[in-house]
Amino acid sequence: MAVSVRDVADDAGVSVGTVSNVLNRPGKVSPDTVARVQASIERLGFVRNDAARQLRAGRSRTIGLVVLDLRNPFFTEVARGAEERAGEHGLSVLVANSDEKQERETLLLDLFEEQRMFGVLVTPVAESMARLARMRDHGIPTVLVDRESHDPTFASVAVDDHEGGRIAAAHLLETGRRRIAFVGGPVSIRQVSDRLAGAQSAVAAAGGALEFLGTDALTVDEGRRAGRRILERDAAVRPDAIFAANDLIALGVLQSLVMTGSVHVPDDIALIGYDDIDFSAAAVIPLSSVRQPATLIGSTAVDLLLELQSGGAPSRGHIVFRPELVVRDSTRPVGDTS
Fold first, then answer.
1. 3-class secondary-structure state, position 157
2. Model confidence pTM above 0.85
3. Binning pLDDT at 50, 70 and 90, where does residue 80 land?
């Protein structure tokens, strides 16, 4: 049978209220009494029932984090940043994967609302603002992660993906490439559409047009499929540069291109990704990428959530970080043999 608070109180010779104070407000109890109660707790093997305590308090000490795809190391780093900051405040983080599916995202948000989470951090699959507003109205604050909010009533932390797409395409143009393709999708994901739009603006400014090659998901497998489609074309009509919507897509494209031995990266096709995950630098041809401060995004999202939970509007409602271009071998300039 589980040891109860009453058992601890009887063993220590104090009231149940005193044991509660030792557990929750030890500053209100004399040091001698605290020591006696803690000795009873250790001797009896008492484990506090946090679930019951949180139920009485009306909310848990857990933050729910919903991301698009946990297979993407970028989101793993976002979760790491959130966990580190949450831990500093005695909170935990429960990470869930929407798998880029609207129906699964809705299911997870329903579950988090039922569990009365301390708050929710979410990278929406598409436009989920009505569902998020309902959760907020029920007392669960919400912060958009890796997605800039265009609703002033929602806090958000993100990277300027339009600018990220622009600098990626501009870099490819600066290396001498002109037939540039964007590979990624679905475009219902805001990050994808923003990166695509940014790339289109850079190419249009140079007097060209960006080719769009859509994918069903942002995965290595989808990148491989896109790479095979490119290889099916005659060399004269292939793109001479590819901007992939994320590094997983880029790594899949790279695998398809180099496996045949008939196409060389970057001599025949330059390639740049997005996120700058660790695997990018370790690829067989080190991959250029656009870096996002993933860990900082996660920790900043928790900071915003804590401000919301304190009862007021966050002092910085919408935080947008600037992306950083990271150049490696996969986008070596045309004619550069170094």
1. strand
2. no
3. very high
Query: What is the number of alpha carbons within 13 Å of residue 67 lying toward its C-beta?
Result: 25
The Cα-based distances of 110 to 7, 55, 66, 116 in angstroms read 38, 18, 12, 10
Kind and range of the H or E element at 145? strand 142-145
Q: Does residue 151 have a pLDDT over 90? A: no
223 backbone dihedrals φ, ψ, rounded to 5°: -65, -40
- Tokens 């942002």 sit at which residue? 218
What are the backbone angles phi and psi of residue 261, rounded to the nearest 5°? 80, -5
Instruction: Give me the chain's average pLDDT, please.
Output: 91
Give dist(CA 160, CA 282) in Å, integer: 26
- Residue 139, classed as helix, strand or coil, is coil
Place of tokens 């964007």: 182
Torsion sign across C-alpha atoms 277, 278, 280, 283: negative
